[in-house]
Design a protein that fits this description.
By secondary structure, the protein is of the alpha+beta class. It has two helices and four strands, in the order E-E-H-H-E-E. It has a four-stranded antiparallel β-sheet, covered by helices on one side. The structure holds adenosine-5'-triphosphate and magnesium ion.
């Protein structure tokens, strides 16, 4: 967790499959999923990150993501302090 005068940022890091650079701007889009075939097996809708971003923005915050394909991802959840 990182704290400045006006905001707190929490990082959520995984060592999973990672996200291709070209896909990074898309992951927060509603119903977007990287691999449609695998999507059917794992059963998600592609809504989780869109909902999380919407909640963060409703608090005047923001979620950003860094990732390297095959290595993992880091989500930064920044929320303003009251
Ligand atoms: N930590 C991650 N590592 C790799 N890819 C990810 C990660 N998080 C999200 N993605 C990619 O972004 C897509 C959208 O993620 P999101 O959480 O919005 O939907 P979902 O997990 O597919 O379905 P839902 O959250 O609705 O169950 C995922 O399908 C996947 O392709
Ligand atoms: Mg999800």
């Amino acid at each position: 967790m990182q704290r400045t005068n006006d905001a707190v940022t929490v990082k959520i890091i995984d060592t999973g499959m990672g996200i291709a650079r070209a896909h990074l701007p898309l992951v927060f889009d509603r119903f977007w999923r990287a691999d449609v075939n695998r999507a059917n097996e794992s059963g998600g809708l592609g809504l989780g990150l869109a909902i999380a971003q919407s909640i963060a923005r409703s608090h005047r915050g923001e979620i950003k993501v860094d990732s390297q394909l095959h290595l993992g991802s880091c989500f930064h959840v920044k929320l303003p302090l009251a």
